[in-house]
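Fold this sequence, please.
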Amino acid sequence: MDKAHEIYAALDPDLFKQMLDWFRENDRKVYSSAVASLAQNRKLRPVFVQRKSVPDQYAWLLKTLKLRQSDTIGEHLFQAWMMAGNQEMLATFCDAMGIEHDGKGQVTGELPETLDGAKLDAAVDQLIDKHDPRLVTLYLTVFNLQVPDGWEALSKKLEDDERLGLNRS
């Protein structure tokens, strides 16, 4: 998966709900901005979505984020949720991989050209011990979008590790 719409198409709806619930509770501006931007992309007024019940808003958002034209907004939503709502997981991964960060998982140095397979295996084990494997998969998948074509070792890990999947419990 190299596009946000493909990730949304494979994503467990419960994980998507967790993300949107987090925004509604912690950062309403991002949620409102996403609704407005996605509505505008579909040539709708935001009020069309805002008047729906919350479950219907979520269903509409997921359906819309599965569209190729929503990739930029969809990727931004993932990044915003990871950076603000899952800092401990990001910091744990960066520490395990030896990637410089700000203590909250925001990379401060250059991204590595390659990822060490042994470090990656240990980092994934550590993350899965502490977090929902679907969330770990989502983070690693979004992280892999940060370089063109992803990192070979991470792409292989996402493909081969049976614990990793966007729609598994």
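The mean pLDDT is 94. The CA atoms of residues 3 and 64 lie 14 Å apart.
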